[in-house]
Amino acid sequence: MTLRVVVIGAGAMGRAWIRTVADDPDVDLAGVADLNLDAATEAAGEGVPAARDGVALAKETGADAVIDVTVPAAHHPITTEALFAGLPVLGEKPVAETVTQALSLVAAAEVTGELFMVSQSRRYNPHLWALRAHARVFGRPGLLTTEFFKAPRFGGFRDAMEHPLLLDMAIHPFDTARFVLEAEPVSVYCEEHNPPWSWYAGDAAATATFEMTGGVRYVYTGSWCSPGLETSWNGAWRLSAEHGTAVWNGDDPPVSSRAGEVETADPGFEIAGALRAFTHALRTGDVPMGEVHGNVMSLVMVEAAVQSASTGARVRVDDVLEHAYELAIAAEPRAEVRDALHSWTSVREALKA
């Protein structure tokens, strides 16, 4: 049987998900929801129900799951409502607007027993999997770097953001670094600035140095306003390890200092790969990449980097986690979710579940 889903959000990304659902033989579109009902109706197409309330529409149509493609501020309320309605959720990144909300969603998934998977779509790229395969055969890693230089003129909310690069884009390479190194962040020192020609109100350039578990360093340098000789949207990567080096330009297969090929896999490509993984997880019970417990640390990296850039100090990731955990308990309106949060003996350990 096919998986019947309601897509919540009918903007440009929502329409991309609708096309992806249409192209997947294992998934059917049960409905489209958006606060703008005209946009939802147009995106849904002929014969597909549309509504303003996506969770209500999913229940009315008997859908099996929802795909949340709303703005980050809506991720927490919509995902919480869907989980407690008995609906698995595949959500766009970031998992939530803040780490505090993300921890609440981890607990909500535990309480309801429903799958909540975040689509970190850049992980679904065979060249990235090849880079990780190189990392696995090169022994102990010492340094992983990313350069990201683009000059998009989006207009709209990004131009007014306080930290446009870190908040809107850096979560992709931060999450990728965790994937390649198979390591977690320990601390970060980050500096931001805004080049004098920038068309962004907030700082559009940043350099962040993360200490990761095992002592390896991950260094990210990027700019949202760097015209000419731009990098791939995936960035340009270099891995330096005990027994070799690999570089990846973000578009083509990685190049290695060692002869011979490495074994890799076909994860699918971007959001189509994420949808395939979500469907497989629901059918088999396997834990997919992006399951909420495993995804939160990517958002923690962003929040820690922003805090470091704002204070000018190195930030310990565990301090960010503990503060968010205290706020999550204080702000949580659902008693069962608060109880789940209280049951955690360690936030780090809870996120490994």
UniProtKB/TrEMBL annotation:
Gfo/Idh/MocA-like oxidoreductase N-terminal domain segment(s): 3-118
SUPFAM superfamilies recorded: Glyceraldehyde-3-phosphate dehydrogenase-like, C-terminal domain, NAD(P)-binding Rossmann-fold domains
Pfam families: GFO_IDH_MocA, GFO_IDH_MocA_C3
GFO/IDH/MocA-like oxidoreductase domain boundaries: 162-244
UniProt-listed InterPro entries: Gfo/Idh/MocA-like_OxRdtase_N, Gfo/Idh/MocA_Oxidoreductases, GFO_IDH_MocA-like_dom, NAD(P)-bd_dom_sf
Top-level taxonomic group: Bacteria
PANTHER family reported for this sequence: BILIVERDIN REDUCTASE A (PTHR43377)
Name this polypeptide is given: Dehydrogenase
Organism: Catenuloplanes nepalensis
